[in-house]
Design goal:
Two copies of one chain form a homodimer. By secondary structure, the first copy, chain A, is an all-alpha fold. Chain A contains 20 helices and no strands. Chains A and B meet through helix 8, helix 9, helix 10 and helix 12 of A and helix 8, helix 9, helix 10 and helix 12 of B. Chains A, B: GO terms for molecular function: calcium ion binding; calcium-dependent phospholipid binding; phosphatidylserine binding.
């Protein structure tokens, strides 16, 4: 469930554009109003506001925001204002450039087949080449094989599973992990081609047959990026909310604003309520309070608004 | 240009369905009429005929055809009657099962990005799993890496090229080939991720800088399947008509009906006129004549009809 709160009735896109324009004018920017409007509109509404603003004032709203607001708040708003598909294309581009395997794995494994395809289409339109090219040319070795395979696949999205295949592929995975042959091409093949339903059946079978979850089996010793990327892929496929909760918890502990922003912005319209719930059960503390402690100013207000405050 | 000839005006789908029904009734099948109708309708018209037939007679036209006609003619008709996307999904499934790398490479490299995607979607709908899975689980080693990468990619489809990239990647390809490191992961990366326009710039640059075409450079000695698959990929990307002409010429020389059928059926609505033209220039002989010599009966009549006779 989303945490995003949209007022009822919601102002028209033209009214919102006018409100924003007023907030930009005069001495300084009225950030409270900017947050009040944009942090409480869904993706379709934000797009309409961008279009209305451009139409009314012959000015790009995103460019104007860049000159009006600053720092972590600007960065978070620049992520938020796009619709989820365009935003992910932008995040993917930055991640591919920086060799940030985690974001690439996330978007490959959390999105549905049609969402991932839409991200790749948006990537083509925006950057005039493919995400696969950027991922492939910025990485090397085993991690490249894994990332290119995960990004490139067009998984079957149905619910049908084959229990015998789950059994045999759980065994293949277990053997590769037991031999510490993490880069075994069978691991990449299975993770990158099977449907999510099939993979979850395989992971369950792994736990039943070998008495340990595949992610725990992988965690043990290695601090290798490749093994870490494997774990991210498995966790994003088997339980994205738990994955994001743990990621967010670590980012709050370490004060990593980039990751805090990414999780809140990308999940606020999706499943941030579940993520918050898991966080609060696990830590016995309020997520809102934790964000309040670690952030400040308009950035803090914006994140709290996305959390439904 | 297509060789397919559709009469003007064309009968309605209901009229065609009635004509076919009559051809099936009584003693034996009137194959001439079956060919007269189905070999002279485009993909959209064939689909309408299938729907009209099912509606009128509560019977599946394809199943009925299977019981009415036989041998190579039946096989060719069974390929032809589907629309190109569904047909390719079926061909891909058979090829993946049989480990026929050539068909998998063809469909990955000849289709546009959106056509390949449509084939993969049709594959999901028809087989309830992905083409990537079947290709990956039926192959091993280097050829698996190449095939899965080619099938899995979602290439950028635009015309923009980067000349410096073409130069540097021509050099990478040349070095890998000179070292006979055919399975070098850079070759797979470049062939499977770059846009076709970019790849053609790279192949041209290869010829200019190294005085030999990349396919010739690859041909020399190896009879390895992997190298053969690389050549097919490069030729399908750089010049599909020349590729299909050579394939067809070989199949005519060796009497390989499967391949003759595949080329004629899959290209009749696309570019069979160019393929025929290349064939006739190269052999100084008529393609129709060559087909006449190598085939017989209704199969022969059907192929000649697809060739525009």
């Amino acid at each position: 469930m989303a945490t995003l709160k949209v007022p009822h009735p919601v102002p028209s896109a033209v009214e919102d554009a006018e409100t924003l324009r007023k907030a930009f004018q005069g001495w300084g920017t009225d950030e409270k109003t900017v947050i009040g409007v944009l942090a409480h509109r869904d993706a379709a509404q934000r797009l309409q506001i961008r279009l209305a603003y451009e139409e009314l004032y012959q000015e790009n709203l995103i460019k104007r925001l860049e000159s009006e607001i600053h720092g972590d708040f600007e960065k978070a708003m620049y992520r938020w204002i796009f619709d989820p598909i365009e935003r992910q294309a932008i995040l993917a581009n930055i991640a591919a450039r920086d060799g940030d395997y985690r974001v690439v794995v996330e978007l490959s494994c959390v999105n549905s087949t049609s969402e991932l395809l839409a991200v790749k289409q948006a990537y083509h339109a925006r950057y005039k080449h493919s995400l696969e090219e950027d991922v492939a040319s910025q990485t090397t070795g085993d991690i490249r094989k894994l990332l290119v395979a995960l990004v490139g696949t067009y998984r079957y999205d149905g619910a049908e599973i084959n229990p015998r295949l789950a059994e045999s592929e759980a065994k293949i995975l277990h053997e590769a992990i037991a031999e510490k042959a993490y880069n075994h091409e069978e691991i990449i093949r299975i993770l990158s081609t099977r449907s999510k339903a099939q993979l979850n059946a395989t992971f369950n079978r792994y736990k039943d047959d070998f008495g340990i979850s595949i992610t725990k089996d992988l965690t043990s010793e290695s601090s290798d990026d490749f093994v870490a990327a494997l774990r991210v892929a498995i966790r994003c496929i088997s339980s994205p909310q738990k994955y994001f909760e743990k990621l967010l918890r670590g980012a709050i502990d370490n004060g990593n604003e980039d990751v805090i922003t990414r999780v809140l912005v990308t999940r606020a319209e999706k499943d941030l309520a579940e993520i918050k719930d898991i966080y609060e059960k696990r830590t016995n503390a309020s997520l809102d309070e934790a964000i309040r402690k670690k952030t400040s100013g308009d950035y803090e207000k914006f994140l709290l608004a996305l959390l439904g405050n």
